[in-house]
Amino acid sequence: MSAMAATIARATGGRAPHDGPPAGPAAGAARRPGRVRRVGLPYLLLLPALLLELLVHLVPMVIGTVMSFKELTQFFIRDWGAAPWSGLDNYTVAVDFDGPVGADLLHSFLITVAFTVLSVGLCWALGTAAAICMQDTFRGRGLLRALFLVPYALPVYAAVITWVFMFQHDNGLVNHVLHDQLGLTDKPSFWLIGDNAFVALLTVSVWKGWPFAFLIVMAGLQNIPRELYEAAALDGAGVWQQIRRITLPSLRPVNQVLVLVLFLWTFNDFNTPYVLFGKSAPASADLISVHIYQESFATWNFGRGSAMSVLLLLFLLVVTGVHLAVTSRGRRVRTRA
């Protein structure tokens, strides 16, 4: 027995046959550092992004919120911390819709709501229709897909400034086509002032926004099995019935996210009206983003402008929360069914 034990000991490197990896607290202590490294690595990789998010978004939001409670005018720009504390006065003036400031803010808010609803609806409809048409294989489909994405790929300033030249009264392309070529108008129209400014702004917004909807919907269509359409066609379902019964229900999760993103982007859009109209937008196209800019930098009342910005943020947070709650509830109902 002693000779056998010696042979086994030499074969196992001097360890007893029943010896194994350390067990008990020592084993847990040995495994813990590796587990900590695995768990902590994702947070370590996210740390630079979190720090940039803090610097770029959260810090200005906190400073802007503090400014909204101060009487910060042009007299305190050099040392805004010395501005007197005004409490909720800026908010009171902003929501007093019987006063001139509140009435102008309400008008701008309603204009922005109408503009956002129309823009998002048209972007979604055009993007969905184009994505469905691009599903079938045909010659030149890749080229058309690339051309559809050009408005989305162009820089905002370059795209909008091109529309500014096209909307010119005397030598713009829009009046040349509508009035000179087609004869649809009695005289050349003013597109950048007056009531037509809303139509011009909506046109530019839809033109540069619908390719994003097209791209997202086209990606969502790739997840719908072709067998569903083939089975529906065998049952006698037409194209419209297939779209209504298969395509749109299957795209519901994609559309929920798409509509929310388009709504937030459009409601907050500042670049398009600013480049299209300049610092002072016409009354018919007075979006709330430009209105807050004018309140802050035209009247030099940064406290009141900050209060309007905070109110806008709260409104968007409420809309986002309601949208997420409704879509989550609908998802749970469909799951139970």
From TrEMBL:
One of its GO terms (cellular component) is plasma membrane. Residues 10-31 are annotated as: Disordered. Keywords: Cell membrane, Membrane, Transmembrane, Transmembrane helix, Transport. Residues 105-323 form the ABC transmembrane type-1 domain. Pfam families: BPD_transp_1. InterPro entries: ABC_transporter_permease, MetI-like, MetI-like_sf. It is found in: Cell membrane. The chain crosses the membrane at residues 41-63, 109-134, 146-166, 197-221, 250-267, 306-326. GO terms for biological process: transmembrane transport. It is a multi-pass membrane protein. The keyword Kinase does not apply. The keyword Signal does not apply. Belongs to the binding-protein-dependent transport system permease family. PANTHER family: ABC TRANSPORTER PERMEASE PROTEIN (PTHR30193), INNER MEMBRANE ABC TRANSPORTER PERMEASE PROTEIN YCJO (PTHR30193:SF37). This is ABC transporter permease. The lineage of its organism: Bacteria, Bacillati, Actinomycetota, Actinomycetes, Kitasatosporales.
